Amino acid sequence: MVDGRRTPGLRLNHPEHDNQRHRRDRHGDQSESEAAIWEELGPDRRVLLQAAGHDLDRCVPEEYHGLYCIENNSRFVEAGRDNGFDGQYVGYRIITTINGGYAKIEGLEASYQQQLTFLPGWTKGFGVYANYTKLRTEGQNSAFTTGPSSSAGGTLAGFLDTTGNIGLGYRGFGLDLRLQTVYRGKYLVANSTDASLVSWQEPKWTWSWKSRYNFSKGLGVFFDLENMFSTPLDRRWAAYPGRVTSYRTFATKIVGGITGRF
Predict the structure, then answer these.
(1) pLDDT score of 41
(2) Which residues contact 158 (CB under 8 A, 6 or more apart)?
(3) Residue 241 falls within a domain, yes or no?
(4) What domain range is 226 assigned to?
(5) What is the per-residue pLDDT across 178-217, written as a single tens digit (0 to 9) for each?
(6) Total domain count for the chain?
(7) Could you say which DSSP state residue 239 is in?
(8) What mean pLDDT do residues 138-153 have?
(9) CB atoms within 10 A of CB 103
(10) Is residue 18 part of a domain?
(11) What does the alpha-carbon distance between residue 146 and residue 55 come to, in Å, rounded to a whole number?
(12) Distance (Å, whole) CA 39 – CA 109
């Protein structure tokens, strides 16, 4: 707020200091559509199929990696009572953020969950679940266009095109056991007009194990393994898979202990 007036997307920088500034977000237009089919087949099984679409055309820096934001800093506050700031802030640089692109995001999600109560005896405690999400994205931002014909192969930077998880669990006789794997598909990390700088993250599967045993309602033990096979946290490459630009490891995390409730 400057002199009681809201100024969208505005920041004022002192010509000698950078610690006095003012900012507002500029909101544009977006449209959203969603269609969902939910089917429940009995008390122990659920199936969900959902499709959604978003047409985006606005600058919100904290959303979508600032895809639609272009900074303009070419103007300065002029002298005079009618400078728009009641004669104040003379010489300050005016920095505004404006809409600079658009994007279209379409997605499909499917999930399945079932408790296997039809199995005999103690095996009734088993359950399975799975989830799959697929995104299709395209857009335009400043110097380059991302779409089916672009060097980035038709996706937006930072968006996971394909994700999923599969799990097997068991509950019974005081046990609560779960084995799960999470899949993250290959995705675009950074786009560029230079094909050699287009950066990707390779796909990966991450496995985890969680186990609990309750001696009573108030006493139990647990033992968990996170990232059982030490899958790298990320392995990023530019231009081609052998040109690795970032490689971070993540060793298996082992956690165990006793839980109590009084």
Answers:
(1) 63
(2) 64, 65, 187, 188, 189
(3) yes
(4) 116-260
(5) 999 999 999 888 877 778 888 899 999 999 999 999 998 8
(6) 1
(7) S
(8) 52
(9) 21
(10) no
(11) 15
(12) 14
